[in-house]
Amino acid sequence: MTDREFIMQMQPWFGDEEKQSLNDYMDGGGFITEFKQTEAFENQLAEYVGAKHCIVVNNGTISLSLAALACGLQAGDEVIVPNYTMVATPNSLKMFGIEPVFVDVEADSLCLDIALVREAINEKTKAIMLMPANGRYPSVGIDAFERLAAEHNLLLLEDAAQSLGSHYPDGRHIGMAGMAGSFSFSAPKIISTGQGGCVVTNDDDVADKVRKLKDFGRTSGGNDYHESLGLNFKFTDIQACIGIEQMKKLPWRVERKKEIYRRYQSGLAHIDEITFFVQDLTYTTPWFIDVIAQSRDQLVAFLKTQNIGTRVMYPPINKQPAYNIVGEHPVSNLIGASGLWLPSAAQLSDDTIDYICHSIEKFYC
Ligand SMILES: Cc1ncc(COP(=O)(O)O)c(C=O)c1O
Q1: Residue 2: what pLDDT?
Q2: pLDDT score of 221
Q3: Greatest distance between any 2 Cα atoms in the chain
Q4: What are the residues whose beta carbons fall under 8 Å from the beta carbon of 281, sequence distance 6 or more?
């Protein structure tokens, strides 16, 4: 046992700046629902990722659905998605009758394997939805996916929920390669508004459609004229106040996440039972510390006795009861059996990381 406080696998991080901003907002008598603060948050995000448009919505799942619908996908269309991803990726499509088709990921980048994508394309395929896992990009380069999509007249969409602060080597922010990209601001993300997400795009028509879809099909705020159908997926200015302050802290967090990753890499380098994936720390920012760990479940139990929280990585989606699709996808199977997220919060101290590495060493040696 240890007398250390429990180390959570992930924890959002808010400070006095967020509190002050909320106080000021409340003193100003705003309506709380989305308005000027939300607009300012959208502008800040658009500038950061280099997008012409950013539309904030209430989470990073519905942002995927709205991106897909705004790009013209409809019930019966097929979209190729990774078999290793958060279940929101396929659910965002399936809930609207769009069929996710699961393809395995590469063992090094954990992004879609382009050779398998190529094999899966058929006449019903309308799009490829990439999930840049932990901020990574496919080993063949994003341009190979752009060429493949163009060759088959497919839409390219990016579920960049885990990728704020990550770029492609050509300088574009991840999420900006396809027709639309999506981010999440849920509690474990590099910045958080508790819940929240956004769609980014350079396409005026897609942006306009997303804005209508999230606001009952309204043509502009406040009026009750509806040319098209929509629901209510709006944000709040309260969340935007938090988001604006979180965004100011993003550049520091990007650097700290990279330092944390490097410290784990050197602290665990001599342990053969732990394997890191490939992560390009020049261009990308690891959201979580993800590893393949031998005897993973026993390690998880041991680390718990040391007051260290971990989280097992996503299981292969085709084997989730909600999907239950026959087929073996070796890389996602391996991740499901042995993938582990170690404590990854930006506020972890070096001393805590060293303690975690020593605890892992104690388990294996
Ligand atoms: C890859 C991916 N897509 C989508 C989501 C869903 O985002 P949200 O929780 O904001 O709905 C997540 C959240 O973890 C995610 O990791």
Answers
A1: 78
A2: 75
A3: 68
A4: 258, 261, 262
pLDDT at site 290:
98
H or E stretch covering 78: strand 78-82
Per the rule left: phi > 0, alpha: psi between -120 and 50, beta: everything else, 124 is alpha
Indicate which residue's Cα is closest to atom 10 of ligand 1. Answer: 60
- CA–centroid distance, 199 to ligand 1, in Å, is 13
Which residue, by CA, sits nearest to atom 14 of ligand 1? 86
pTM: 0.98
Name all domains of the chain by residue range, CATH numbers in brackets.
16-244 (3.40.640.10), 250-364 (3.90.1150.10)
Find the 88 Cα to ligand 1 centroid distance in Å: 6
pLDDT at residue 1 is higher than 80: no
CA 48 – ligand 1 centroid, Å: 20
- Pocket lined around ligand 1, Cβ cut-off 6 Å: 59-61, 85-86, 88-89, 131, 159, 161-162, 184, 186, 197
